[in-house]
Sequence to fold (620 residues):
Amino acid sequence: MATVDLAPRATDLSRRRPHRERKPGEKPFGPGRIIAFAILLLLAISWLVPFLWAVDTAFKSESDAASADQSWIPAGGFTIDAFTKILAAGNVPTWGFNSLVTSVLITAITVAISALAAYAFSRLDFAGRKWLYPVIIAAIIIPPQVLIIPLFYEMLALNLVDTYAGLILPQIVAPAMVFILKKFFDQLPIELEEAARVDGASRFRVFWSIVLPLSRPILASVAIFVFIGAWNNFLWPFLIINDTTLMTLPVGLQTVISAYGVQYAQVMAQAVLAALPLIVVFLIFQRQIIKGVATSGFGGA
Amino acid sequence: MTTATITGRSVANATTATRPRELSRRPRRRENLAGWAFLAPFAIAFAAFLLIPMIIGLYLSLTDQSLAGAGGVFVGLQNYAEALTDGDMWRSLGNTAWFTLISTIPLVALALIMAVLVEQGIPGQWLWRLSYFMPFLLASTVVSQIWIWIFNPQLGAANGLLTSLGLAPVSWLQDPNTAMWSIVIATVWWTVGFNFLLYLAAIQNIPAQTYEAAALDGASTWRQVWSITLPQLAPTTVLVVMLQILASLKLFDQVYQMTLGTGGPGGAVRSIVEYIYDSGFTGYRLGYSAAISYVFFAIVVIVSIAQFRVTRAASRRNG
Fold:
């Protein structure tokens, strides 16, 4: 596992100035830099335009959106009709609420149980640790897609189809996060913990009051990574939830593709509304999110 | 308070110092208890939602269990025998392999280009990061809806662009020859930002002194990129390629959503995961579908082992 070295290192990717200053003798606007700038700009436009086009369509009337003469500025002017209709239908807010509740719960439970397990593997010498850890690490290789059939069968037997529990529980097992957290705990100086133990602090007390505060950055990274994954997860929620009132945003959107098939402005308005929360969160926490994805990414993907 | 602590500590020290091994059984048991208490929540979830399903899946794959509840008779390896002669399964495997090949190349190359150029310190850092990474934060459904709209043969922006360039319009997702490329375009747009971030992190870990020394020797920027940045990024590239191959093999969301569950014209883009879904949830054949799941799992394991061998060989070569 060569991924080991890269995982726990916290690199600040969002600094405005990269570490490399301009080299001596390099012109501020040499031809090389102009070409580089042009390529970056072309790529940025190609990456922004699809999304901006979706936003633009969402603000058109249905007749303008479906007109043969497509342009950025619609003949009939901009309107928020599509958004009003979608919000009046009432499903999108419900789905957004379901997404929020389930993603927060999945994140909280995953981080909590993974951190506890990682600490046990890092610091506690208990029977079974030697063979159990490799088993859990080996399980990183299992794609969730392989489990959908037996998991669904299990959920049918447990009567958890169409419940929050059935949606959440299979998503809380993240062996890769145990791996990342254990690597991080291994690096922490053990002296502090030993001193506290000598003072009579319990194992849990040491974990809660010493280890967790020292681990805030890595816990945040893992939490961000898990949250994005849970918020956007499609396959499992799509299988386990049939009740419209329990659907998450990604699943709910899929069910109405056919219903609103030709109402392009409304389909785009839904897409934009579904995308909005995470984009706003990203704009606010850009630094932490970029760092979190980069640090957890090697272990988590 | 201070004295109490000091006393407590010295007592504890004395205890451990004077009685080294005699009592080792009791602390040992307590350590076991603590260890299992910390591990229990994860271990239970791991067993219930990963280990047991793996075993159930293996068992199901040996039966003719139906989703409707019927069947469940042990049929031995019959499902596997059927899978190996199932043209649709091979077709979906072929589609998945083809997608993996033609998506991995741009997903790695573009990410590398983006990261290297952004790291040249060109103004607009905030904009570059935002625009390349933002699509990664969108749910697959949102991505699919946006691209279904862009690829709309009559009204879509893609054909608008082609006709404005004087080219003939294309049917994109509705044409078996272009459907897979449409999926690849949407996928590259969606996930390249993730690889971009991994590269960005790796570039920033290259020590600045390496560049300073090269600059003093009069090496140009492009020379430095070519002779320092790219070689230093070789191990990262190996990792990114591996992660990307494994991610591409799991293709499902975009294909299912952008073809509305049909697998595209003539099944041209049906992936292996979609075939698992189709045989289990549309065809109701849980047993057969579980067998295909295990075939897919075997492929993932083989690819992972091959990758592990490659990295180990590479790291040994680098000393």
